[in-house]
Amino acid sequence: MDDVVGPHGLGQKNERGERLVEWAQRNEVIIGNTWFEQPPRRKSTWKSPGDGSRNQIDFILISKRFRNALLISKTLPSADCYSDHMLLMGKIRVKLRKQKKTKPNIRLNLDLLTSDTDLCKKYNLKVKNKFEAFEEIEEVEELWQQLKRSITEAAEEEISTKERKTKQKWMTEDIPNLVDKRRKAKGKQEEYESIHREVRRKCEEAKEAWLNEKCREIDTFQRQAQIQCTGM
Questions:
Q1: Model-level pTM?
Q2: Neighbour tally for 162: CB within 10 Å
Q3: Can you tell me the distance from the alpha carbon of 9 to that of 31, in angstroms, rounded to the nearest whole number?
């Protein structure tokens, strides 16, 4: 057991803990966060309702082969997690083989093809011209490769790249502010609970409004398509 469980655990093992130790021994792993000396608040991973007691019931398991790769382990009691469990972190040093540099994937703003009619016409014309520039090809696979190249090159030349977004499309501007306000209220239980309920309500309302708008757009496109089919 000494080579599985370290000297810096918290609390007493129960039946489940004993089974975990047995499993770790069979599978040649160690219970990583019991090997680092930390104050009790940095060891405990769970708190009872009302914070009456704390215990260590979440663990980092790592192969004995890589035990020296785990540099530190501790919990972050002040992390903004709406749970009775604390965030458990571990710092790992990993030696990776040097990888060859590859061309980064370009994220094109394809939404512009539906919102900008002139751009869509220019793009379609460029694809057509590029494809017609190739000599007649009989092989299906080669034909597909040429078509794919035409579409990709035309898109990269005509369509701008898409800015990376870190938030959900449905998220309104006030939600991140509320989340930040909730984070600052950590430790003030009543205020934290109140803000958390408001965050959930705002998220549900924003998501529903966004989905309704998308449904209206789809309905509009369907009606336009039906009108075009009728007129053909």
A1: 0.45
A2: 13
A3: 9
